[in-house]
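Section: protein folds

Sequence with per-residue tokens
===
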Amino acid sequence: MRVVRPLPALATYILVFLATAFPPPGAAQAAKYEGRRIATIQFVPPDQPLEPGEIKDMLPLKIGTPLRMVGVEDAIERLYLTGRYEDIQVDAEPYNNDVIIRFITRDSHFIGHVSISGNLSDPPNRGQLANATRLDLGQPFTDDKLAQAQAGIRNLLSVNGLYESRIRPEFEYLAQAQQVHIRFVVDSGRRARYARPVLKGDLKLPEARVVSAAGWRRWIIGGWKQVTQSRTRQGLDNVRQQYEKQGRLEAKVGLDSLVYDDDTNRALPTIHIEAGPKIEVRAIGAKISQKKLRQYIPIFEEHTVDPELLLEGARNLENYYQSEGYFDAEIVPKEQRVTNDRATIDYLVNTGNRHKVAHVAIQGNRYFSTATIRERMFIQPAGLLQFRRGRYSERLLRRDVDAITNLYQQNGFRDVSVRPRIVDNYGGKTGEIGVYVAIDEGPQYTIRSLEIEGVKHLDVARIRDTLSSVAGQPFSEYNVSVDRDLILEQYFSQGFPNPTFEWNSKPAAQPHEVDLQYVINEGSQSFVREVIVTGLKFTSPSLVDRNILLSPGDPLSPSRMTETQRRLYDLGVFAKVDTAIQDPDGETSRKYVLYDMEEARRYSFATGFGAEVAKIGGCQQCLEAPAGQAGFAPRFSFDVSRLNLWGLAHSISLRTRVSTLEQRGLVNYSAPRFRNNDALNLSFTALYDKSLNVRTFSSKRLEGSMQLSQRVSKPTTLFYRYVYRRVSVDTATLKISPLLIPQLAQPVLLGALGFTLIQDRRDDPVDPHKGIYNTLDLGLAEHIFGSQRNFLRALGRNATYHPIGRKMVLARNTSIGNLYAFSYRGDPSQAIPLPERFFSGGASSNRGFPEQQAGPRDLVTGFPVGGNALFFNQTELRFPLIGENIGGVLFHDAGNVYTSLRSHPFRLRQHGLQDFDYMVQAAGFGIRYRTPIGPLRVDLAYSINPPRFFGYKGTQDELLAAGQEPCRTQPDRCVVQGISHFQFFFSIGQTF
């Protein structure tokens, strides 16, 4: 395929023709001096848009040579073709026996930043008005384009009911780069209201009903709504839907005019309606619901009836019936004539016998394995859960044959033949079919030699290293096209805008071998003259400069232009980043690269309302339900962010959440690309968190932290942080033995250094099918960091995903954590503050527990008290269940939260009601429904060996009054309780 160089703009050629056919003023005077020696060449004004060296190389006129008018005309043409000049005049002046040639020029101007200001009424917004100008960055600016821009703005305002608008353009010229920044000052004026619409055509509905359907009248307070483009469009759609409800699928509803009356400030709509007949669509010969007919027949979506849409509907119905096992289904559409304002469309359905795909076999393949070929096939044999009758249709069979053929041809088998064969009554069973695909591979063509010609500026060896078609490799046109794209991309990245690629091949001396030749025409190379940035108001220019990957003198690389654009977007402070080459059609080798910004709003606000239902640790005052009971918590959130602080892309945000379970406020300051390093991001965080009635206690946390993240590679990220916090427990909410309250309820100051490693090699983080995911989190709390307790916290996780065939995935996740206390004078088991301990169990760790209900418990009340170690292992077999979007999961979870890692974590049996250091197991079944935001997850788990424990039935005051040993003094209050065998979970996203 040849890449064709775009021609310069037509306007440029017209100017060149006029300049040469009708010489500019002074040219006739210059003709009098033809033959004289040129003493000097001058330009007026002296500062020219082209660089002196570029002008010198471009002009055919040279100092010291005789003056020729052909050279003058050629010079004018070349200067015009650069696109940098709007007008050129030539003057000549005698100097002794020589002549002075003087070019008097007027520069062109090019479109720069386009903005909208003034008194505006939304809609339309400023961005829509700017787009309506159709003034493209870097293109030549002319009076005609300005008039078109004003007309575009005025038209957009008019269709939004702003008929009395005033538009005034203002210009700012940047002489150095010949740019003009255009600001349109718009006064949108008052917005018109709708008048009662005029209805024309064949309505077949009462006028009042049509007017009501449009929705332009205000019913509560009377009168008519204001005119907007979206409201007008929605009104017409509402009217069309009203006719569709009557079965009039061919109804045509159009706006003939919207006439404004400035005296009344009303816009009068005139709507033309052709209702058309009522249309009934039926399936003759088989039962099918109207819902499915609407789903598969496109006339309902396209709002029209034509033969092509009817045939498309027939094909869709055939595919539907074939997917249901009617592989011989034939559908014929038949359109009836209109009678008494009714038309009937019949689909004559002959389903034939119902079949089942019992067997699919591949024969004759030697080069590719059967598994490799089956991966590319849509036809599937019947399965136990998915595709109960298999998946087959003639369309799918043709697609599979084409896919197999392309696979072989792309690997050099140019003469491959793929022949399908269908066997009825497979295995002697009526209604079952076998699909056989016979492959005659034929010979494989390979490349004996590759010759590359025309490469002058790039490294041939480097180009050759990237190619697919080299000596010894299979020969195919597909691989040649891949090589063409790779070669042209390398030239584009080095500033060659118009390279071309041609290839040819010829048979080599040996059979089935070819000699391949690539011929490249590089064309001219373009370079960056300067990078110009416009549109900045608050952002520091130095920030933008640090992210621009192009410098003056560099090759003009579109890929680096695009990468710069992406980097600027990634700063998060720009709503829009446009990039362009100024005057791309101008014939100059050094061009301006333009970046025009639109800064995002610096302040953003967000509010949210919601509620959550979860199992929590009982009520506020009583000690009931230590294993959790259902609770309802309304929730409100409010967030505010300030972007682009100091113009450096820094941001600060406040996030709050208030509910009956939690009050939380977080202030975060973020400094991305720390020290101009793309891999580093610095953040500071202040946190206030008060958790009410969660697990065993209510806690308060005041925290400040500093974190530096480092992107080591695409899958690997490191986090370094320092955290200082004060954690305290509300003693009135502690649901534990009075003996433990003094030790566990004391406020504690903690200072810790932390390190986190994340390695993500999954194919899809939302729903992975293969890969690996590792995390390691380490934290050291020590007195030298300001901590009152000294301990080491380690938590690691490893998850792997292994595909089994094409349909199933075996997923596994293992988590290990440990808290190690040191240099503590008291009881080492109490060294870890209660809020810092491990609390786990539930949907993301072990589904044999309710949320946060795993691990050691208070021996009197039965409420969890957390542990110093954890170990969990989850295994899931994920498989398709129904169709393409519903899948199933069989899972097994095992593990627990332990007193320590030395507490026999793999023991499977509980030794008494005071033993919680054993592995709890759960098995179950789940359903996954695929959605754009991730799979919806429903899991039903059965806990094989849930823990049992003592629980105190009474209030906290009664517990305190019972003394040191309440179970001895009040044995009737201490009863045996336990975790339920059955647990149910609902959430979004895979378990891990």
Notes: Residues 1-22 have pLDDT under 50 and may be disordered. DSSP finds 20 helices and 40 strands in the chain.
